[in-house]
Amino acid sequence: MKLEEFQAKKLFREHGIPAPEGIMVTSAPDARDASEKIGFPVVVKAQVKTGGRGKAGGVRLAGSPDEAQEAAEAILGMDIKGYTVERLLIDPALRISGEYYIGITVDRKRKIPVMMASASGGMDIEKVAAETPERIIFQPIDPHRGLRGFEAKKLAFRLFSKKKRAMDTSFIMVRLWQCFNDLDATLAEINPLALLEDDSIMALDAKIVLDDNALYRHPRMEDMRLPTPSDQKELGAKSHGLSYVQLDGEIGCMVNGAGLAMATMDVIKHLGGTPANFLDIGGSSSPEKVVHAMDLLVSDPNVRAILINVFGGITRCDDVANGLVQALSGIDLDLPMVVRLTGTNEEEGIRILSERGINALKDMTGAAREAIRLAREGGGAR
Ligand code: GDP
Ligand code: MN
Predict the structure, then answer these.
(1) Residue 379: which pLDDT band, with cuts at 50, 70 and 90?
(2) Dihedral-angle region of residue 343 (phi above 0 means left; psi in -120 to 50 means alpha; beta otherwise)
(3) Closest residue by CA, ligand 1 atom 28
(4) Which ligand 1 atom is at minimum distance from the Cα of 123?
(5) Are 117 and 155 in contact (CB under 8 A)?
(6) How high does pLDDT run on average in the chain?
(7) Which ligand is nearest to the CA of 202?
């Protein structure tokens, strides 16, 4: 689970990492009020679960209430890499004299956490990583001992030669490790770690990604969930026993079994189409599950054709067929649909469908090809 900046900064502060204390708002008038409370200048920052906000125009300085309101109006509703801005963080704007980078993630090859640090922080860190990787220093962290004081100091002195700056930074590094470790994070990052004109060091941006598999150990973090519309859809699907991931293609897929669902997506891609989602209705599918799954597919405006791919094992083809008939009786389907049904109780399933005028194919590749053709023909253009 990714956290937004205002949440990550709060957790940083709780762990003793200096970060400005701003106010999160969701409207331009509230942004104005918040900026007056904080005092000028302020920085108005889009809260979205992606980086690169600065370059996208999602971070603006404001020197007066009018400017703060204007900036908020411009940023709210903005699309940043596919995320719509619904929240803003109003922070005091500080006077920066240098931008640095520190972050902790898991080194998958070495199977241990690693701290990364660079004196070339700021908005171009991706470019630094790609073009001058030698400017990023790595310090592996023993997960049992944690980041040790001398390791942090060694790193910090490579960013700063002045003792005070290096010592302040090494404290932040150790606390960043504690934060990463306490929260079971997979990423904790500060970019920029700013050197301010008063010679103090502060986290001006904050990024935390939590390990979903460890969330049960952090019930408090559940309150930090800020579902976007597609997250909400995925959570809703989960509560009905479906596993659903929204993608941006045109073929809505309903499949039983995660492996078959992946294979179906691969076949669609291989044949030149694009899947609109991953949807696994599970091993034993009741008709109700199929009804919910159908709702998910038809509510996605990108879907141009539906491909249902069922390999009957524990799942019985007649159950799926009954679910489909039930789902279709409740909606006015204006999308072309292709069904591939084979395996347990296949004859019964095909009979149930054909009584409703639905043809089922037995061949997966043929079914995928047909779904792509129908999507192209624009039968489902909405
Ligand atoms: P990102 O682009 O999504 O990583 O957003 P950041 O929070 O890192 O902000 C982008 C840039 O805005 C930073 O690299 C800074 O140059 C600038 N910025 C952010 N906060 C402040 C601030 O308080 N004062 C000043 N002067 N600049 C800031
Ligand atoms: Mn940043």
Answers:
(1) low
(2) left
(3) 93
(4) 14
(5) yes
(6) 93
(7) 1
**Which range is most confident: 25-34, 217-226, 276-285?**
25-34
Kindly state the tokens that stand for 348: 């019964």
- The dihedral sign for the CA sequence 299, 303, 307, 311: negative
- Ligand 1, atom 22: closest residue by C-alpha: 93
**Does residue 51 line the site of ligand 1, with CB under 6 A?**
yes
Residue 96 CB less than 6 A away from ligand 1: yes
The one catalytic residue in 67, 101, 151, 244 is 101
Among 1.10.1660.10, 3.30.470.20, 3.30.450.30, 2.30.42.10, name the CATH number for the domain at 96-223.
Answer: 3.30.470.20
- Return all residues near 180 (Cβ < 8 A) that are at least 6 apart: 104, 113, 188
43 Cβ below 6 A of ligand 1: yes
**Overall CATH class of domain 21-92:** alpha beta
Q: What is the pLDDT of residues 245-281, one digit of tens each?
A: 988 899 999 999 999 999 999 999 999 999 999 999 9
271 CA to centre of ligand 2 in angstroms: 39
CATH topology of 21-92 equal to that of 229-373? no
Neighbours of 223 (CB within 10 A): 8
Does the pLDDT value for residue 57 go beyond 80? yes
Q: Tell me the whole-structure pTM to 2 decimals.
A: 0.76
189 a catalytic residue: yes
Ligand nearest to the CA of 53: 1
Domain chopping of the chain, boundaries: 21-92, 96-223, 229-373
CATH architecture of 229-373: 3-Layer(aba) Sandwich (3.40)
